[in-house]
Amino acid sequence: MRTSYYFTGTALAILFLFPLLWSGWASVRTDTGFGLDNYVRLFSSANGIRAAHVLNSVIVSALTVAGTLVVSTSAGYAFGRFRFPGRDLLFLLTLAILMVPYATILIALYVLLGWLGLEDSLVGLSLVLIVFQLPFSVFMMRNSFEAVPIELEESARVDGCSSFGTLVRIMLPAVRPGLVTVGLFAFLASWSEFFAPLILLNSTGKFTAILAVVNMRTASHGSIDYAALEAGVVFMAVPCLVLFAFLQRSYVRGFTSGALKG
Amino acid sequence: MRRRAVSGALYATPAAVLVGLFFVVPLLLVAWMSLHRWPLLGKARFNAPANYTAIADNALLGDAALFTLKYTVLITVLLFAIAFGLALLVQNRRPGVGFFRTAFFLPMAVGFASASLLFLGLLSEEIGPVPLSGDSPALGSAVLLVLWRFAGFNMLILLTGLQAVPLDVYEAARIDGATRWQLFSRITVPLMRPTIALVLTMMITGSLLAFDQFWILTRGGPDNSTTSLVMVIYREAFVRLDLGSAAGISVVLLVLLAVVSSVQFAVLRRRSV
User: Fold this and answer.
1) pLDDT means per 10 residues in chain A (262 residues)?
2) Residue A101: which of B100, B191, B253 has the nearest Cβ?
3) Residue from A229, A238, A250, A256 nearest A191 by CA
4) Which domains does chain B have, with CATH numbers?
5) ipTM entry
6) Inter-chain contact A224–B126, Cβ cutoff 8 Å?
7) Structurally, how many domains does chain A consist of?
8) Residue numbers in B near A213 (CB within 8 A)
9) A181, part of any domain
């Protein structure tokens, strides 16, 4: 029993880790041995990534993470701790975003953002990405707020804290694992999101990094520079993996500490 | 108490505005667009029901619908089985379990488009250590990619459901002489119903909307054999420059999806509210 657990676990772990390790290896493998040639081609070939693309990705991710945290914390507090007209309707409507084809909305969003003057705009893209994060993050934050003992909040209110003071001083520290999870998810989603920027950004100058990397594959008729692509994969994955390693503990705790009860 | 209701409504306002403006309005807009001849550039003109009648004549769309359905069934069955297996494997606290959980979940940290590029190389004949061949390598590579990337994520969600089942329920059943299989089928699965519904909903909707993996791995080929529904929508809108037709297909897809997932959503709702 014990041995089979370790055997199965280890075999599966190797299977899951192998593609990641391979892409790292393939990204530094060159014709003559090992080196950074593939990365040089990634950043210098005609269809490659430019610094501006990376900056665009950073801007979109920062806006999306900040926006998602603010909106979902505020909404989670409202859903978890207050009763008000339209509460259940709004909550269901937010969850309903999960059920509606992403692509469907994007066609209409493309038109809508044009009307709002946010065509081909990083801000417009970020707003859309925030909305797509809401079902998960609002659900998560509502459950996090619900899990905070009511006595904690009441004692703060007795001490004369306003509802906003209670939120900032008492509740936010208590829901930190949830915030970390929501923030991490928003970053992972926005940093590597492909379909929304593909539709909402038109000019190559506005491209995010992943659009630029995929462009290396799709713009090449003929032969694909696979090694440079793997360099692109590593370049895109490293920030996510680093962040993940840093936050993994509080992240997994946020996930399992009653945030998504069965 | 009234003041609390006002505060609550105020805290919910940013979410309400975003959901209204970027979810409800586009939802209505897509229905409105589907009733018009709506070119990418230029004026829209009412033409209902032309966008819907054209759907029947769209040969590519029929093939794409069949392919997407086949892909969805394949992914849902395989992914659920594997994710549940992984969750059962790592549900108990024992040495090494943290490492296993992290290893299974780690692919989720790589973006889906990046993961598609990774597998494009991994399964290629040029530089791949495991070049994929066989009857339908295109579909096979997409399935492998999705299983690798999403198994750990679904494992983690199922794990939260597994751990929420109170231990004393198991104890009581064990005292009554229940076998391991009975524990699993009579206690674990029924008590996990909302979690299972959530996971299945995400798998089905996610697969029905597949785009990135085929766009990057196969470009829809060979001979459009791996063209998904969303790829057809994209093509109508941005290759044929006909947003009205894309909206028409979207609405049909949307209605089908709403029917499929409302069943599961009902199960999910029973938990709270």
Assistant:
1) 88 96 95 91 88 96 98 96 94 86 83 95 97 93 90 84 88 90 90 93 94 86 86 95 77 53 38
2) B253
3) A238
4) 59-272 (1.10.3720.10)
5) 0.88
6) yes
7) 1
8) 113-114, 117
9) yes
